[in-house]
Write a structure and sequence with these properties.
The structure holds two protein chains of two kinds.
Chain A lengths: L3 E8 L9 H16 L7 E5 L12 H8 L6 E5 L5 H14 L5 E9 L5 H9 L14 H16 L3 H16 L12 H4 L5 H4 L2 E3 L2 E2 L8 E10 L12 E10 L14 H14 L8 E4 L4 H10 L8 H6 L16 H5 L3 H17 L13 E8 L4 E9 L1
Parallel strand pairs in A: 2-3, 2-4, 9-10
Antiparallel strand pairs in A: 1-7, 1-8, 4-7, 5-6, 8-11, 10-11
Helix pairs in contact in A: 1-2, 3-13
Chain B lengths: L1 H9 L12 E4 L5 E6 L5 H8 L10 H16 L6 E8 L2 E10 L4 E9 L6 H16 L4 E4 L4 H9 L4 E2 L13 E4 H11 L8 H6 L18
Classes of the chains: A alpha/beta, B alpha+beta.
Chain lengths: 393, 224
């Protein structure tokens, strides 16, 4: 099969943006093309977005983007796969090139969520749940996270301190990432054992607290993919190879799973990506895991094989997931602190891995000599997951 | 002398406002946010801190800062009756400011909340302190509130579930008015109002002389 690499990356700052959705996406797209050293020659555009019609009252977004940045007559489609839309769009880009249908693909993920209140944004994301069996009973994604966390805590003994430690890590990494939504540091003395913890870091979905959740963000990220056989067209950077992509689905309703804590789709997606790349979890130098809620970083780090079940907490205590640790996780700040414009997230994770594999991450969060990076983009409450492995060439 | 006589006629009756005992809140960064009542000699610094934000369109800083500047100036030069201002500092640097006034013994008028140091929920803590002042130190039953920014609406109207009273005319103009009642305050106090008193002297000392912010996250590239 034809090999595919990434030759350009672009990213807006995440946070609140006073531009329309397509402008936000255009910004990231043009940055990625500039990084690739091109102004045209794109065969196909895939756009990842979840809420354009629901929040921004906009459809036909891929067509609009192509026209806004003068890429006609490139082929263009919108990819919607919930919060995993970004990685699905990258996967589609990969398939388009691997099949020979395109040589150069632009993938753009973007979202503009802060146009509405946090409550409405939460409600919009919750539309991915089952409308009768879940949504009708008030099961939003934060509610699922609370239920999941309670079950995990009771089975494996994870504590609030473990999660707070991850929050501190996420904020520290984000504070070094110029694209991150959250710029402020957090400390254990502020959010875990401080005298005013219950007001500063209140319970949101028991046992999860405010600092266990990602913010609602606007933003976009983009990557330029090409067939490695045509990579000589791009001379600015050595391509970062897409070594493996795996995807798996699970039951739509969480209660239909034999064990809620068994994130089967995460495990299978990762296994498929490892198999395609011909490596295992031990070869991974760093990972971007989908931590819309910090409990997911814990559970996913076990499902992808970094730690045995229930052992992530010990790794947190040993600092193994810090930038300088054995397996750095979420060096970008993760969704938790970099931000989570849902359609952009999967592409943003790939952006971070490319930056790390190129050695271009900012001082203090650059991983030493990375070779393989893993991204896990978690759709639904684990019912559609895409894992991507990138390799330094 | 003539000027003094005229000045006397311009000023409202001056009544000392009850003190707001300083408190501090350890925010997420682990730093203490010291909240204290602004003194008359603080106002030049407060005005200077607010002024650059009057030209920031994003998040409605322009209208909030412009109005607060006028309100603080009004308080400073004695043009407002029964006003107050609370200032929050982190390491002595002005992080957030709130102000308002008494309408009468039982009703208060909330003016503005302006936060310079963002990302630590300083504005939320300062607004809560303002409501605490009205309810617990001024002994009032109701505070009239409007929002002029999205952030304000989310933080106050939604988070405190304020009572809507569109027929009530707030001093800030025609924006729909809301009211924090004592019942609402008592309901939300455990979740939203924090702070430790007394403030240890070494922490309180950091807030004695206000330090102007060197940078504003709202104004990229700004250097004082």
């Amino acid at each position: 099969m034809r090999q595919v690499g990434i030759v350009g990356i672009g990213h807006t700052k995440f946070g609140r943006m006073d531009f329309d959705l397509v402008d936000i996406m255009s910004w990231a797209a043009l940055e990625a093309m500039k990084d690739a050293g091109i102004t045209d020659g794109i065969d196909q555009v895939f756009v990842a977005n979840m809420g354009g019609s629901a929040i921004n009252h906009q459809t036909g977004i891929a067509s609009s983007l192509v026209s806004r940045i003068f890429l006609e007559p490139a082929m263009a489609e919108l990819i919607e796969n919930g919060p995993a839309s970004g990685s699905s769009a990258v996967k589609c880009g990969y398939m388009a090139i691997a099949s020979g249908m395109a040589d150069v693909v632009l993938v753009v993920g973007g979202e503009r969520m802060r146009e509405v209140t946090g409550w409405k944004a939460t409600d919009f994301v919750a539309t991915l749940s089952h409308p009768d069996a879940e949504y009708a009973y008030g099961l939003t994604l934060p509610a699922f996270a609370g239920i999941f966390a309670r079950a995990y805590v009771e089975r494996y003994g994870l504590t609030e301190k473990h999660l707070a430690t991850l929050a501190v890590k996420a904020h520290r990494n984000a504070s070094l990432n110029p694209f991150a939504h959250i710029e402020e540091s957090a400390t254990l003395s502020g959010i875990w054992d401080g005298p005013h913890r219950d007001v500063v870091n209140p319970i949101m979905a028991d046992p999860l607290r405010l600092y266990d959740f990602c913010p609602v963000s606007d933003g976009a990220a983009a990557v330029v993919l090409c067939g490695l056989d045509v990579a000589s067209r791009f001379t600015k950077h050595v391509p970062v190879r897409i070594a493996g992509i795996g995807q798996a689905t699970d039951t739509h309703c969480v209660h239909n799973r034999a064990d809620m804590l068994d994130l089967k789709a995460v495990r299978m997606a990762a296994e498929r990506a490892y198999a395609m790349a011909g490596i295992g979890p031990k070869e991974i130098s760093l990972a971007e895991l989908h931590d819309a809620f910090l409990i997911l970083e814990v559970a996913e780090s076990e499902e992808v094989g970094f730690f045995e079940r229930g052992q992530a907490k010990a790794a947190i205590e040993r600092g193994e997931t810090e930038v300088t640790g054995r397996i750095p996780i979420n060096t970008s700040g993760g969704l938790k602190a970099k931000g989570h414009p849902v359609g952009a997230t999967g592409v943003s994770q790939i952006h971070e891995l490319v930056k790390q594999l190129r050695g271009q991450a900012e001082a203090g969060r650059q991983v030493a000599e990375p070779k393989f990076g893993l991204a896990v983009n978690f759709g639904g409450f684990g019912n559609n997951v895409v894992a991507t492995i990138l390799a330094k060439e | 002398m003539i000027l003094d006589e005229l000045e006397k006629r311009l000023r409202p009756p001056e009544r000392p406002m009850p003190p707001y005992p300083p408190k501090y809140i350890v925010v997420a960064s682990g730093q203490p946010l010291v909240i204290r009542q602004a003194r008359h000699d603080d106002f030049p610094a407060l005005l200077e801190a607010v002024e650059p934000l009057a030209r920031v369109r994003k998040d409605f800083y322009d209208i909030v800062a412009s109005r607060m500047y006028a309100e603080l100036l009004g308080q400073y030069i004695h043009r407002v009756v029964d006003p107050y201002c609370l200032v929050g500092t982190i390491d002595g640097v002005i992080a957030s400011i709130v102000n308002g006034r008494m309408i009468d013994e039982k009703r208060g008028m909330s003016y503005h909340t302006l936060t310079i140091h963002r990302g630590l929920r300083c504005g939320a803590h300062m607004f809560a302190a303002k409501m605490e002042y009205h309810m617990e130190y001024l002994g009032q039953d109701e505070v009239f509130i409007v929002a002029e920014s999205f952030i304000g609406f989310k933080r106050w109207m939604i988070e405190y579930q304020l009572e809507s009273r569109p027929e009530l005319q707030h001093e800030l103009g025609g924006a729909p008015s809301y009211v924090l009642t004592r019942a609402l305050y008592d309901m939300y106090k455990p979740r939203l109002v924090a702070g430790t008193r007394p403030v240890p002297p070494e922490i309180l000392a950091t807030a004695d002389e206000l330090i102007l912010p060197d940078e504003y996250p709202q104004i990229p590239g700004y250097k004082r």
